[in-house]
Fold this sequence. Notes:
Blueprint (H helix, E strand, L loop, with lengths): L1 E5 L5 H13 L7 E5 L26 H10 L7 H14 L10 H23 L3 E5 L2 E7 L7 H4 L1 H6 L5 E4 L3 E5 L4 E5 L13 H10 L8 H7 L11 H9 L1 H10 L16 H10 L3 H8 L25 E5 L4 H6 L6 H12 L8 E4 L6 E4 L2 E4 L4 H6 L1 H11 L3 E5 L1 H8 L5 H4 L3 E4 L3 E6 L2 H6 L3 H25 L1
Parallel strand pairs: 1-2, 4-5, 8-9, 8-12, 12-14
Antiparallel strand pairs: 3-4, 5-6, 6-7, 10-11, 13-14
Amino acid sequence: MRSILLGGEADFTGWRDHARSLILADVPPEDVSFVTQDGAPGLFEEASHHAQPQGETEFRVPRRFVELAEQAALHRDADRFDLLYRILWRLRREPELLELASDPDIARLHAMAKAVGRDIHKMHAFVRFRAVVTAEGEQFVAWYEPDHHIVEAATPFFARRFTNLVWTILTPERSAHWNGAELLFGPGATRAEAPKEDELEALWLSYYASIFNPARPKPQAMRAEMPTRFWHNLPEARLIAPLLAGAEERTQEMIARAPTKPAVRRGAKHPDPAAAEQRAEAADDLLQLKREALECRACPLWAPATQTVFGEGPKNAPILLIGEQPGDQEDLAGRPFVGPAGKILDRALADAGLDRARAYVTNAVKHFKFEPRGKRRLHKKPSVGEIRACAPWLEGELTLVAPKIVVMLGASAAQAMLGRSASVMKQRGRVFDLPGGRHGLVTVHPSYLLRLQGDDERHEAYQDFVKDLKLAVRFQAKQA
Length: 480
């Protein structure tokens, strides 16, 4: 019996080289045993690879087998390499073997490859990075416990997705480190070496709880997609039990409450934008301007909305922030930025060194535009005409507040100020001149941060958002 020592648990390249030589030497499967050793290199050194065999061979196998074997080789089954060699041996004599789905060896090969593929998918979905400040700067560290030997196969995904971050993924068997230029692998670690929760985790938990629909809980589907064995490493998992436990009570509360969709008001079918402009120009203070705006009929949005949502803040605010339009919660409350996006804005302003109470916050459009969906109202982007219809009220706010700088939150706000469409990502990060002698800065709308899925992606986007706000704060301080 020949015992072939491979370089590690995931050493498919070594197995392939040995298997090719053994097949050409006509060594039957019963005379070969493949064993693995902990051949991992030193901490975060480059992983070594076996040299490719030289010269041509006469034995060829279907590409499909190579793909299946490469994935199945990462399975935790101790006999996987022996199984692969046995199938390889049989393929030489049974070229159609892979088509026999009922064959025990082929069925086992497919099951192992499928299990590994599922494990890689789960790692991509359930890794949660946390920020760590080191002497070299900010890095991101995650702890994960895969079922199979997938670290080398799964982590290039993170290198492609988070190229600009420095991160490390710790697992019990292997660890991966991306330094911004290359992906390195090292030995395993323990859970104690991973960091605890970071500053953005509370925000993520708040958002996760806010999007939970108590009327449609599907615990079985949830556990199928997110098995309970992963829960102890997922910050949001701690909310699942209490959310499910209170689902029935919250559903009854939703039923008892009136729908958020207001009754449709009847009024003028042909609004007069000129009248709104005249009334806005006549106002000599913010309170009067707001009273005039409450009766605005310059576009059809006033009819289905609950009320006009005007801006708020001190008249002498050094910074004026413009969003797109009020959302569902703002429409009901009559105040801008009081929902989840508003909470992010409040926190980001504080992190940028400005209390929201010192800023004037408004929207380009003063009525909530939505699409009815049962009892829910889904946000709908305002049109160019609707933005223009609200322009007199926004201009009135700008004139009366006279801020040092105008911060445009998102594309609709930028369009309202610039009179044309603008790319937020291209325009952001700099202060530029606006018509009328004003100064402006474009950044993302805080609701954009809520739509991001990954912890690290959300963290990076939030830091960029705060960076933009800090630029505005510094600029207005210089203008004081």
